[in-house]
Records
---
Amino acid sequence: MPYAHITGWGMVVPEKVLTNDDLSQMVETNDEWIRSRTGICERHVAGEGETSASLAVEASLRALKVAKLKPTELDLIIVSTSTPEHLFPATACLVQDQIGATKAGAFDLLAACTGFIFAVNMAAQSIRSGAITNALVIGSETLSRFVDWGDRNTCILFGDGAGAFVLQADEEPGGVLSAVMHSDGSGGDLLVIPAGGSKHPTSAATIEEGLHYIRMDGREVFRFATRVMARATKETLESAGLTLEDVDLVIPHQANKRIIEAAARGLKLPIERFMINLDRYGNTSTASIPIATVEAIENNRLNAGDKVVFVGFGAGLTWGALVAEWTGPLPSERRVYPGWYRFWARIRSLLLRVVRLIEGILWGRHS
Ligand code: ACO
């Protein structure tokens, strides 16, 4: 049975930065309040032309470059997002087209901030079963497009960005060791975008009432988060046959520094064992774990052979954790420039559209 190794990683955030001071010009808040209650100092927000798909494509190409894997070798692409480009088609299909992953099946997964953990687990299980060899998992969000910039309870928290992992099959033991996934829909109303779906399709009335924006019961989400983070970490370690002493680094969902500190207390682990970078990015939802992972690697806090726990919670309610033995790229002499594939993918996509158009003219729209 092959093992599912994490062999590539990449991240990207929009250039535009929004500081706490900038926010204090928009709503009644201040830098001191935001820092002390959340740990956040600034966040990145998407500019014109930047979308969940464009950020996902950039992060993916970086991850593929690390793994030295061609987009054409991918079997599966999962985009975890709560802020897709459209209700359909899936953002993953747009990414598949734009990177030229010609043989990959692609779909979106929605489990809010826990989504990246769920998606990595799905990809790892597909590899472990022998069904596929190479997978790309992306967490990408443009939450700034769904935030009510007049609501100080939510607009201070979120940021935009994307992160991606490449997972590959290999006979060498290691990689994803275990994962736990949990959900409790009875708490669905605690964090919700009420309108724009099939229950409340967008209408003048839903827009008038602001139902297309994020609504959150912050205190309840906080309480829930502090309960589940430590529990899920312990569960996944137990199913991998590991203990807390084996863990080199915990990479938690970056929602609130106080939530991460509570998890550290619950696990009786020193806070230094946790990767925290929410001060510069805010809560990028499902992108926060891969973004933090890339920074952990860049800062030498995560190295080959380390045992790392990813743990998160989010809307749904959802929560989960995953433990992996960190691998790094599989040995390979070859050079791969996935960025070139973007150019060829554009031409391929254009040709496919032209062929579809010609076929439509030749055969008629209804034949
Ligand atoms: N600036 C200044 N004051 C504020 C602000 C603000 N931005 N926001 C709220 N306040 C006020 C409140 O009105 C309240 O005033 P009151 O006591 O007069 O009523 C006071 O500050 C305290 O408010 P609380 O809500 O109790 O503040 P708390 O310490 O709980 O912090 C926060 C609020 C930061 C939202 C916290 O509850 C939190 O982080 N919750 C978790 C949220 C989260 O992680 N969500 C993402 C989940 S992941 C996903 O799926 C997207």
---
Amino acid sequence: QSPVTEATAKAVPALPDAQTVTAVTHYTDRLFSFRVTRPASLRFRSGEFVMIGLMGDPHPETGKQKPLLRAYSIASPSWDEELEFYSIKVEDGPLTSKLQHIEVGDQIILKPKPVGTLVHDALLPGKRIYFFSTGTGFAPFASLLREPDTYENYDEVIVTHTCRDVAELTYGANLIESIKQDEMMIELLGEENLAKIRYYPTTTREKSAKMGRITTLIENGELFTDLGVPPLNPETDRAMVCGSLAFNKDIAALMEAAGLHEGANSEPGEFVIEKAFVG
Ligand code: A2P
């Protein structure tokens, strides 16, 4: 065998739909975010998700590699020239056990077919929008909070984020802080629009200014008293929900009890739901 053929045989196959990592930030041993180049042809609506991943390990006998893909909400807004993602790290998670080690310059696979229900088109017009999230479920809202339509459509934008501890709130807290201070963001979204954001972070396993599951704080009315807003009303209030399956189910029940109906792209309603990427 000539050295050339040997080299060719060993060459790593180019990733299909490859994009290059441009930034990586680790927040805790469970959470990180990263940015990648955006395919020139990719158009999406803020709040949608795409399939991303890496090549899996070679098959022990055939040596063949298959892509390992998972759904990830795009955390960056539709106008951004790069794409941002916010991810959990799961030690034995097939994808995230590898993905957590990516570095600037590495490549990931990104299928450029955005879909999802956490989009303004799936909601009827209203006065006040709630973004309810837990854990990495904050990601689609990181996109929507940087989207001008969010502020054009609503007078108030209430963002709740519940995590186990304070460190897990960092990505969301930093994002809100940065959009309120970044000159480019202020110019794009408007200072008076940014004043519509009401950020309501809570923790469940570490002491913080506000503790408790958001579901409990809705049920006992504390959320509304704390913010000085009336209880949920299907005439005025809209909601987008993103968290674990159990969380989504519990919030959906609370929305329905308040008279809000679930919407979809084909039939807009008063609230919409999407499962956050887990594992
Ligand atoms: P808790 O600590 O009481 O389980 P995780 O990190 O496990 O994804 O959870 C993120 C946050 O979501 C935690 O603060 C957790 O609270 C909360 N949570 C999990 N399930 C629900 C649920 N069904 N309703 C409301 N909050 C939930």
